[in-house]
Amino acid sequence: MKHTIDVCFSPAMLPMYDYKGAVVVVIDVLRATSSMCVAFEHGVRSIVPVATLEESLAFRSKGFLVGAERKGERVEGFDLGNSPFSFMDESVRDRDIALTTTNGTQAIKAAEGAASIAIGSFLNLDALCEWLKKQDRNIVLLCSGWKSAFNLEDTLLAGAVCDRLDGLFGFTDHRDAAIAAKCLYQVAQNDLLGFLENSSHRHRLANLHIEEDVAFCLVPNQTAVVPVLVDGALVAAK
Ligand code: 3SL
Questions:
Q1: In terms of DSSP bridges, do strands 227-230 and 233-236 run parallel, antiparallel, or are they unpaired?
Q2: 103: exposed, middle or buried (Cβ count in 10 Å: 0-12, 13-18, 19+)
Q3: Residue 146 Cα: closest atom of ligand 1
Q4: How would you class 209 by CB atoms within 10 Å of its CB: exposed for 0-12, middle for 13-18, buried for 19 or more?
Q5: pLDDT tens digit string along 86-95?
Q6: In which domain, by residue range, is 11 found?
Q7: Structural domain count of the chain
Q8: How far, in Å, are 34, 79, 87, 119 from residue 94 at the CA level?
Q9: Pocket of ligand 1 (CB under 6 A)
Q10: Could you give the 3-state DSSP secondary structure of residue 165?
Q11: Would you say residue 77 has pLDDT above 90?
Q12: For the whole model, what pTM was predicted?
């Protein structure tokens, strides 16, 4: 039987989707899911996504590194923020990390109850698509958005996945979201950075002088790692 692929533009909309038997791919291009891919590429053993600062901090006594981002910045007192560059350090190798971010880790929590949860970004685009082809399930691409609102960059990645997989998977009856995401990606694909010129989160990050993070997170296929959630922790899929 042909499986379906669909796009959910916000975690707030996820309850309207039939996701419980599906693979949910959580997408937060700027920057949480991109940083997670970088972390595993640099040897991190596991990442426990948590909702609050307190939950993250509590993992320190268990030997974890603790990470927290709020308003785009590392929260004082935490080892790590949410820049992909902060996960490129030897000090993260073989470590377990607890992480909370404004939207990305919240979206992962929202997807709990799915048959499986994977992490997507431009950085692991081709590897993710290859992994998805092997899953014998419907797929829901969940955009983290910004505080429940639509955003462009997550939609572009969802569109890129649809663009690569729609010959293999059928769009669902509620297919407009997948069609829209794919069309948007096809318009933007040759200049993702330029397309996002006026996007809200690119501006938020530019105000923090971290435009290099934005450019980095839009470069496809920098890793073959596909992080998946197993017993509450993200690990690299075998
Ligand atoms: O919302 C999130 O999860 C973050 O990726 C936001 S930020 O890029 O760190 O500002």
A1: antiparallel
A2: buried
A3: 1
A4: exposed
A5: 999 999 999 9
A6: 5-236
A7: 1
A8: 19, 15, 12, 19
A9: 28, 30-32, 69, 72, 82, 101-104
A10: helix
A11: yes
A12: 0.96
- Ligand 1 site-directed mutation target among 26, 35, 37, 69, most atoms within 8 Å of CB: 69
- CA 129 vs. chain centroid, Å, equals 14
For residues 119-141, give the mean pLDDT: 96
pLDDT tens, position by position, 157-214? 999 999 999 777 765 555 789 999 999 999 999 999 999 998 988 888 888 878 899 9
Distance CA 86, CA 97 (A): 13
Per-residue CA distances from 226 to 88, 117, 176, 191, 208 (Å):
17, 10, 27, 25, 29
Reported as a single tens digit per residue, the pLDDT across 192-203 is: 999 999 898 888
Rounded to whole angstroms, the Cα distance separating 181 from 164 reads 12
Cα end-to-end span (Å), the chain = 25
Cα(73) to centroid(ligand 1), Å: 9
Q: How far is the CA of 144 from the centre of ligand 1 (A)?
A: 9
- Neighbouring CB atoms inside 10 A of 211's CB total 14
The CATH number given to whatever domain includes residue 76 is 3.90.1560.10
Is the pLDDT score of 70 beyond 70? Answer: yes
| Residue 160 and residue 128 in contact, taking contact as beta carbons nearer than 8 Å | no
Mean pLDDT for all residues in the chain: 94
- Probe ligand 1: pick from 80, 82, 151, max atoms within 8 Å of CB? 82
Residue pair 215/176 in contact by the 8 Å Cβ criterion: no
Name 98's Cβ contacts closer than 8 Å, sequence gap at least 6: 47, 48, 50, 55, 56, 58, 59, 60, 64, 65, 66, 67
